[in-house]
Amino acid sequence: MNKQYDMLSPEALGKIDREVAKYPADQKQSAVMAALVIAQDEKGWLPKETIAAVAGYLGMPPMAAYEVASFYNMYDLHPVGKYKLTVCTNLPCALSGGVHAADYVKGRLGIDFNETTPDGKFTLKEGECMGACGDAPVLLVNNKRMCSFMLPEAIDKLLAECN
Amino acid sequence: MALIDTINPLLTTGWAKGDAGWSLKDYEARGGYAQLKRILASKMSQDEVIAEVKKSALRGRGGAGFPAGLKWSFMPKAAPEKYVVCNTDEGEPGTFKDRDLLRYDPHSTIEGMIIAAYAVGAKRGYNYIHGEIFDIYQRFEEALDQARAAGYLGDRILGSDFSFDLFAHHGWGAYICGEETGLLESIEGKKGQPRYKPPFPANFGLYGKPTTINNTETFAAIPFIMSMGGEAYLNLGKPNNGGTKLFSVSGHVNRPGNYEVPMGTPFAKLLEMAGGMRGGRKLKAVIPGGSSAPVLPADVMMECTMDYDSIAKAGSMLGSGAVIVMDETVCMVKALERLSYFYFEESCGQCTPCREGSGWLYRVVHRIEHGEGRPEDLDLLNRVTDNMMGKTICALADAAAFPVRSFIKHFRSEFEYHIEHKKCLVDPEVQRVGSGFFKAGAA
Ligand SMILES: Cc1cc2nc3c(=O)[nH]c(=O)nc-3n(C[C@H](O)[C@H](O)[C@H](O)COP(=O)(O)O)c2cc1C
Ligand code: SF4
Ligand code: FES
What we know:
The complex is a heterodimer of chains A (163) and B (443).
Chain A: H1 10-20, H2 32-43, H3 48-58, H4 62-71, E1 83-88, H5 91-94, H6 98-109, E2 115-116, E3 122-127, E4 139-141, E5 145-147, H7 152-161
Helix pairs in contact in A: 1-2, 2-3, 3-4
Chain B: H1 24-29, H2 34-41, H3 46-56, H4 68-73, E1 83-88, H5 97-104, H6 106-120, E2 124-129, H7 134-149, E3 165-170, H8 180-187, E4 211-215, H9 216-228, H10 230-236, E5 244-251, E6 257-262, E7 265-266, H11 267-273, E8 283-287, E9 296-297, H12 298-302, E10 305-306, H13 308-313, E11 322-327, H14 332-346, H15 352-369, H16 377-386, H17 396-410, H18 412-421, H19 428-434
Helix pairs in contact in B: 3-6, 3-10, 5-6, 6-9, 9-10, 14-15, 14-17, 15-16, 15-17, 16-17
The complex binds flavin mononucleotide, iron/sulfur cluster and FE2/S2 (inorganic) cluster.
């Protein structure tokens, strides 16, 4: 096997193979979005070399994979805290406290949007509509876990659970 | 949240058991996959299936309201390789129906896609699912495995000579991928930048092949249409506006959530189902079809019925069916500022009028909100929108323009007050209380 992919674990490569199998044999590039997520989950974020490794594995130019990684908002091209919290502040959520929830988290963590706490534990992001406005306020933990009805007590509880 | 209330449930029949009713066994117990079986066993022709969908007057539920049967009939018959694609990129602010459809009843969408594939002659399909709802994507993959194991997907489905397989693809945070050609680019592993049209996806779609793309709710309605017949489905709603529709009600109501009602149901009834206005406060405005639809003042909205034609006549759009309810605690300038920021942030940047125009709109509304507006700004905003609408590759530029024009049109005095007095007409403390985040009296 090509050395270049060593930075991804056999498990990660196995998961990427399963994604590749969803597309026609000559369309491996279609798996790049899922593959970058798999790589990001493993590395915590996406350094250039990791993106290049994913591109190499899928037989596409590194620049093409980098374009994808920089176009979509949930890829992290810089290190983030152990817990990345993304709060939706779009209008439908704001009507039910989305902006106030973000302000509350900022106060609790002592950071603003796009900042990380000094202990490296939390990064805070502002999100756009997550398709869950009926459950406002909503926030995402590490892109994949949606938390609903995040009023002050629920936020306190979530922050206490994050170790 | 599971189903709270409905009139004449179809799409939401499977929601009654909440998270406990989504699996294949439950769906089959509700009569699921019976229509697929019937179509295959009776060797219904492709044209017969399409004719039934045309009769139902089912209009696309993703926003544009294009007749689904007509769209299917555009697919070239002879092409050897064709695709069916489902749009679950649900990112239009206010919309959260497709998430619940896939959460509580993924198999109705799957069956609808299989029937569509049969009708247009596609062998492969994809469901593009919004990245922010990853648990729903995982559940959908599980549902696909169930359907495959039961012989509803794969080679020679249920012993017929029809083969079709279906896969899930997730997004990762880009509103523009909800636009159908941006979505196709995204499945191809590229930036989700919309394509010039024509050619339309029916001729040049995924991997350049003929492709039928519909919204999740559109596909989910298909098994019900085939079961009750196109005409009976049409008659549930009103002429030209067939069937029932899911409405995602958000904002200042007592019970935000999804409500399924027949097309043509009065808005007042929908509001009542959603528990009425929060805290008994007064309705100020409603955005009836997702954030891209023009806002309507309370008195106009209260006269509307929930269907494409009534809302269009009132000067807005039914869009995705996202009903954003605002009460008197809302500052319309601040509300518009947030929406304008969204379109500026999500413009893909290909077209100059959209890239530059959305930035202008945001910056000017921002300065009005922050007490730096000038008297000529309202005309400036309208002029900028003139230079955006209808001048770009996709409709995002129009979506950015509609809120600006309609907010200024209906709430001009509030904008003028802001510019003149450098502050909100609605007291900031009233606004703060409106969101319900802070308990009364708490800091
Ligand atoms: C900026 C933009 C965003 C869109 N977002 C969505 C979306 O999230 N979901 C959707 O189904 N359609 C969306 N659409 C509409 C699609 O382009 C397309 O019309 C629709 O998926 C067709 O399916 P339908 O005919 O069943 O509605 C969007 C359109 C634009 C211009
Ligand atoms: S109108 Fe805007 S979002 Fe649409 S293609 Fe042009 S720049 Fe991109
Ligand atoms: S506006 Fe926040 S989830 Fe839709």
